[in-house]
Amino acid sequence: MESDEELMAAIARGEERALAALVGRYAERLHAFLLRVTGNRDDADDLLQDAWIRVARGAPGFDPRRRARPWLYGIAANLARDLQRRRGVRLRAAHELRSEPAPAPAVRPLDRIDLRERLARLPERLREVLVLRFYGDLDEAEMAEALGIPKGTVKSRLHGAIRALRSEWEGA
Amino acid sequence: MTCDAIQERLDELAFARALDAATPEARALAAHAADCPACGAHRRFLVALADALAVPVPAAAEAAVAAARARAARVLRARATPPRVGRDVAVALAVAVLALPLVVGHAYVVIEGGAWLLARWLPAPVLDWLGAAYLVSLALGVGALYGLIPLAVAFRQRALGGST
C-alpha cells in the first residue's frame, strides 16, 4: 500500500487515482474533525470540499520530507479558522451535534453537556489544540506541524486548555 | 515523580483514550490517583472530559465525499491542462479587429465632415490640429481597448481556474 506521502507525490504529478485513494483514506476523518470543530454538517461538507481542492492545488508544493497527515489536518484547521474569522462569531460547539451519546455510567449527563459547552467557550487557540489532539489523532509533533507552531507551544496550550476546563468544571 | 508530572501523564493518557488501559503505567497512575486527592480529582475530571468529548459524530454523507473528490479531481485536470490563453487572445483580437474598418471609417467621416463644416470659421492650421487631436485620442482609446482584451482573457482564465 502506498504511503500518504507517495500518494501526495502522485497527486502532484496529476494522478487522479492517487487523489481518490487519499480522499478514501482521509475524507471521513477530516469530515469528522471539521464536524466537531464547526458543529454544523453543512459547514463541514463545504469545508471538506475546500480542503480537497486545496490539496489538489497545493500538492505540487508539498514538501516530500513532510508528513502528509498533519499537512491535511493543518489545511482543515486553517479552513475552520478562516470560516470562523469570516463570520466573526464563534463556531457552534460540538455539543450541538445530533448524535447518540456515548454510554458513560460514571458521569452525569449534566457534566457531559456542561463540559462540551465550556469547551466551546474556550479561546480558539486552546480549543483547536484540544480538538486536534482528541479527534485528529495527531501527536504533539504532528500538531505543531499542522498548526505551524512550536511543539512546546502545543504542549503548553494543551495543558492550558485542560487547566482552564478543569478550573471551570470544579467551580461549577 | 511529582503530582504535576503525574497529572501531565494522566493528560497524555486521556488524549490517547487510555486512562483505563490495562498498561502498567495506567494502572500505576490510577493507583496513585486513588490515594492522592489532587491527582484523584484531576483523573476524575479527565474521565468526565473524555466522556464529554466521546460523542460520536454522524458519518460523512457519501454525496459530500463524492462531491469533494469530484471537485478536487477537476482542479487536478485543470492543472494538467495548460490554459489556452494565447488562442483565446487571438480569437478575441480577431473579433475586435473586425470592428476596425468601422472605427476607421467613422473617424474618416468625422474628420472630413468636421473640416467641411468648420472650414468657413476656422483657419486650416486649427482644423489640422483638431483633426490630429481627434485621431490621436481615437487611436489611444482604441489602443487601450484592444490592449485590455488580453488582460480580460487572462482574468477570465484565472477566474475559471479558481472556480473549479
Task: Please explain how this structure is put together.
In chain A, 42% of the residues are buried. Chain A has helices at residues 4-12, 16-38, 41-58, 68-87, 109-121, 124-135, 140-147, 151-171. With 172 residues, chain A is mainly alpha-helical. In chain A, helix 4 (68-87) packs across helix 7 (140-147), helix 6 crosses helix 8 (151-171) and helix 7 crosses helix 8 (151-171). Helices cover 72% and strands 0% of the residues of chain A. Chain A has one domain: Orthogonal Bundle (Rna Polymerase Sigma Factor, Chain: A), CATH 1.10.1740.10. With 164 residues, chain B is mostly helical. Chain B has two domains: 3-52, no CATH class; 84-163, no CATH class. Chain B is built from seven helices and no strands. In chain B, helix 6 (100-118) packs antiparallel against helix 7 (124-163). The longest helix of chain B has 40 residues, at 124-163. Chain B starts with a helix and ends with a helix. The chains are: A mainly alpha (172), B mainly alpha (164). Chain A binds chain B through residues 11, 14, 16, 19-20, 23, 27-28, 31-32, 35-36, 41, 44-45, 48-49, 51-53, 55-57, 60, 94-95, 97-102, 104, 106-107, 111-116, 119, 133-135, 158-159, 162, 165-166, 169-170, and chain B through 8, 11, 15, 41-42, 45-61, 64-65, 67-69, 71-73, 75-77, 79-80, 164.
